[in-house]
Design goal:
38% helix; 275 residues; four-stranded antiparallel β-sheet; 8 strands
């Protein structure tokens, strides 16, 4: 069956203007999905113009630093094998698999979830997928996965702060510290702030980076507690300075100016219930 000029105009309208999936277009035009896919390429129709592509700044930014810190805190790296035998050519791809790369972040605080989604978009140009049931944001991108791996984000006992962050400008260092303390920090009522981790090397790096901004120390001075953890402590006398200079999204502090979920990129479901 030949494609008329009217068929071509209809195809362009359905795909580019109404943005219907190829399977739906095939049903409307009475053709197979493979045929639609081939014709879109043959006629030079721009493909998936609305899909976000990976992009990253050539310099370190606070958004990049916060994403790195959140992955080191309450996040994790993802590398999984998944089936690749679906779509119009599924019959020819049985038993095939491919590797998927990405990272994820879990938190029950809606402010931190929304901040992470916004930072991922600023840092990588990507839109994370939010799972309301698990309170987790998933991001798929091999390029972002490779960058975070190269920069030391990873397992709880192995992450480290790269020089690109530890020797960056003060706003970048403060952004990393804020994100990490929002995940791992305990803000006690009398002013003391403690961040707990089983990664002593990482905690000592953070203490060295944070020391010139806010006085802090690692405890115990040597070794670890029986539960294989150590703490980075901000003494109570400097707690107010930490909140003023570094800040915290999960603390209701008068110096913070968090306006809530962005109307441009709202978090679906329970994150908009004011919790």
């Amino acid at each position: 069956m030949r494609w008329t000029e009217e068929n071509k105009r209809t195809l362009r309208q359905l795909f580019l203007e109404r943005r219907l999936p190829i399977a739906d277009i095939a049903l409307k035009l009475g053709r197979s999905t493979a045929s639609i896919n081939t014709v879109l390429t043959k006629f030079g129709v721009p493909r998936q113009r609305w899909v976000r592509r990976f992009r990253m700044s050539t310099r370190m930014t606070p958004a990049l630093a916060r994403v790195h810190a959140h992955v080191c805190g309450d996040g994790y790296m993802r590398k999984a094998k998944e089936r690749d035998d679906y779509g119009p050519l599924a019959r020819y791809k049985r038993g095939r698999y491919r590797w998927r790369y990405g990272f994820a972040y879990t938190n029950f605080n809606p402010r931190l979830i929304q901040s992470f989604i916004d930072d991922v978009e600023r840092a990588f140009g990507l839109r994370g997928r939010y799972d309301a049931k698990r309170r987790t944001v998933y991001v798929k991108s091999k390029a972002a996965w490779e960058w975070l791996t190269r920069m030391g984000a990873g397992k709880s006992r192995e992450w480290f702060i790269p020089e690109a962050i530890s020797k960056a400008s003060r706003p970048v260092r403060a952004a990393w510290a804020q994100a990490f303390f929002d995940d791992e920090g305990h803000f006690e009522s009398w002013g003391r702030i403690r961040a707990r981790s089983v990664n002593r090397n990482g905690i000592e790096q953070l203490a060295h980076m944070l020391g010139p901004i806010v006085p802090c120390h690692v405890t115990p001075a040597r070794g670890l507690y029986k539960d294989s953890s150590c703490y980075l402590v901000i003494p109570a006398v400097h707690g107010a300075k930490f909140l003023r200079v570094i800040g915290s999204l999960k603390m209701n502090h008068p110096t913070l100016a968090f306006a809530g979920p962005s109307p441009r990129n709202p978090v679906p479901g329970p994150l908009n219930d004011g919790a």
